[in-house]
Amino acid sequence: GLVNFSSQNSWANCILYLISCFRTRIKSSVPVHQVLDLMPSLGLDLKRHLRAVAGEKGDVEAAEKLLSLVEKEAPDSPGLCQEFCQALVKGGYAAAGYLDPNLNELPSPSLEAAGDLGKALVNLFFDRLTDTLQATQVAFRCLGKGLLNPEDVERVSRNRAMAADKQGNKPAVREMLYRITQKKEWLSPFLEVLGEAGHANMAAYISGHPSASNRCDQWGKLDFLNDHMILFNDSIIH
C-alpha cells in the first residue's frame, strides 16, 4: 500500500508540474461543466460554485479555479489529480495532451498554431456558421468520426429541440462549435465533416482557403493572421 501511495504522490507531483508549465493552454481547453460531470469526488457545493463562475465569467476563469483547487488539494488527495486527468482524457479534450507525464501526447507547436488559427477562423465566421449549419445533422456526423461523444450530441440535440423554430438551430450550433473546438486535434475531422455535409465552402473558409467565388468582406480581417497562415496551411491542409 505504501508503495502505491508513494507512486501516486509522485505521479500527482508530475501532473502539478505540468499544470504549472502549460497552465494557459490547459485553461483554454477545459469545458468546466462537462469536466465536473466526470469528477465524482468533488462535492456538490464546490461544483455549484465552479459552475456559477463558468456561467458568470466564462470557462477560462472557472478552469483557473478548478486548477487551483486541484493544486491545493493534491497533497492530501493525490487521487484528485488522477480524476481530473481521466476526466480530460475521457472527454477527449485538448488539455489532456498537456498532462501526460510521458509527454507522448504533447501537441507540437505547429499543431498548436493550427488549432489556434482554426479557432480564430471559427470565431471570425461564427455568424455564417450558425446561419448555414444544421446542428443535429453535423453533430451526428461528428459522432461518427469520434469528434463528439454521445453526451455532446445529446446536448446539441436538446438545445435544438428546445426551440422548434428556425432560430432554435443557432444556439444548438453555438453549443456544438464550442464543444468541437475543445476537443483534441479537432480541426481536420471537422473540415471533413463540413465537406461531407455539403458545406465545402465553409470548410474552405475555416481552412484558410476561400475560393475566389466565395470570398467575403470578412476575409479582409484576416491580415493579422497571415504570419500563422503559412504554418497552418503547411502543417495541416497539405
TrEMBL record:
GO terms, biological process: innate immune response
A Pfam family hit: CARD_2
Signal peptide positions on this chain: none
Keywords: Immunity, Innate immunity, Isopeptide bond, Phosphoprotein, Ubl conjugation
Transmembrane segments: none
Domain Caspase recruitment span(s) in chain numbering: 18-95, 119-208
Protein's UniProt name: Caspase recruitment domain-containing protein
Species in which this protein is naturally found: Laticauda laticaudata
